[in-house]
Each structure stands twice: as structure tokens, then as C-alpha cells.
Structure of Protein YhfH:
Amino acid sequence: MIENVVEFFKNLPPKQCATCGEKIEEQHECYGTQCNSCSEL
């Protein structure tokens, strides 16, 4: 059962910034929706 959960998170697509669409370099399961550049505006 644990192995299936790990595989689920490994197979998530990369997160994209909600503002500019750029790939976010952080964990896919985190709650942030903007890249560093857009969140500092």
C-alpha cells in the first residue's frame, strides 16, 4: 500500500505557475501556485 502512494507522488506532473505558466522548481505536492518571480511582484 505504501509503495502505491510513493508511486502516485513520483508520477505527478511538474507544477506550473498559475500566473506565467513557468515550471515551478519545488515539490509537486506543495500548496504554492506561483513561481518565485511572480510571487515577489
Q: What stands out?
A: The chain has a mean pLDDT of 81. The two ends are 42 Å apart (CA to CA).
